[in-house]
């Protein structure tokens, strides 16, 4: 983990804190990650322990910047994208800070100011970058002694997929074994060597609004009610093993095929949930058709979709221009590559 000194990213947030703050802010930046083998389903909701392991690539776009500053005021203050967080959004951050306080043996409340460069809650992994940045900034603000694995386990408690955004490049999240404390210790992400693959991920944004059903609710409903869930989970364990091998031998078509079937399978599980959850829209399907057409033209392009209608297309960097051109009139396009892990940008010098 790189901790870079420097105030340039901290400065834009500095004047958003009120009075009654103690010491300097700890500021962290984290990037979203997109799973090529998905996390879909928890075996333990309290500890965010997944049913299956997953594998992702961290992107170099849509960073979240989060500043945490301890406060002498009662209660946590949370500002997300320039607005005070209330209700569930506030409760999720406050519960997460409770965990950090308990581990650090501290009881001060905090002011948290967080901004996403990308869309929030649109299936573009804003909760992954959000809780990875919060884990790193809050650990620093409360003086918690945490290495990268401990930060990954901590970030997982805010949002499962956040444990992978602690790391740059490709990361695998081990499902771990057991529930409660045993599961907590054994379920973390770690980086895997895949940098040589160096793919492009073309993000086709067809709708950047927040989704109607949260991924948390959708995965719970799927686990509880979908007859497709168990078969998908069994297939996903095989996908994970095959994906690791495909990355190791730098086999982009195999990586893409596994990612696409794993994602389509995940969406199939939700369609059979009761009531059904459908994130893909006609515009998503139009992108999927174009991906098929690209493949028919000999271009190795493969789609993956998360809890939202936006489609991400994996391809070789050498093909990114052709893929972008093929999708341009059907969606807003962002081109992403492998990005960095979560890092502190200004250390707390209280
Ligand atoms: C479809 O990590 O957002 O993006 O742990 O309940 O916060 P919670 O869920 P979250 O789920 C992400 C699901 C996914 C697949 C993935 O990222 O692996």
TrEMBL record:
<feature type="domain" description="Mvd1 C-terminal">
    <location>
        <begin position="202"/>
        <end position="330"/>
    </location>
</feature>
<dbReference type="InterPro" id="IPR014721">
    <property type="entry name" value="Ribsml_uS5_D2-typ_fold_subgr"/>
</dbReference>
<dbReference type="InterPro" id="IPR005935">
    <property type="entry name" value="Mev_decarb"/>
</dbReference>
<keyword id="KW-0547">Nucleotide-binding</keyword>
<dbReference type="InterPro" id="IPR020568">
    <property type="entry name" value="Ribosomal_Su5_D2-typ_SF"/>
</dbReference>
<dbReference type="InterPro" id="IPR036554">
    <property type="entry name" value="GHMP_kinase_C_sf"/>
</dbReference>
<dbReference type="GO" id="GO:0004163">
    <property type="term" value="F:diphosphomevalonate decarboxylase activity"/>
</dbReference>
<dbReference type="Pfam" id="PF22700">
    <property type="entry name" value="MVD-like_N"/>
</dbReference>
<comment type="similarity">
    <text>Belongs to the diphosphomevalonate decarboxylase family.</text>
</comment>
<keyword id="KW-0444">Lipid biosynthesis</keyword>
<dbReference type="GO" id="GO:0005829">
    <property type="term" value="C:cytosol"/>
</dbReference>
<keyword id="KW-0456">Lyase</keyword>
<dbReference type="InterPro" id="IPR053859">
    <property type="entry name" value="MVD-like_N"/>
</dbReference>
<dbReference type="InterPro" id="IPR029765">
    <property type="entry name" value="Mev_diP_decarb"/>
</dbReference>
<dbReference type="GO" id="GO:0019287">
    <property type="term" value="P:isopentenyl diphosphate biosynthetic process, mevalonate pathway"/>
</dbReference>
<feature type="domain" description="Diphosphomevalonate decarboxylase-like N-terminal">
    <location>
        <begin position="30"/>
        <end position="179"/>
    </location>
</feature>
<dbReference type="GO" id="GO:0005524">
    <property type="term" value="F:ATP binding"/>
</dbReference>
<keyword id="KW-0067">ATP-binding</keyword>
<dbReference type="Pfam" id="PF18376">
    <property type="entry name" value="MDD_C"/>
</dbReference>
<keyword id="KW-0443">Lipid metabolism</keyword>
<protein>
    <recommendedName>
        <fullName>diphosphomevalonate decarboxylase</fullName>
        <ecNumber>4.1.1.33</ecNumber>
    </recommendedName>
</protein>
<dbReference type="InterPro" id="IPR041431">
    <property type="entry name" value="Mvd1_C"/>
</dbReference>
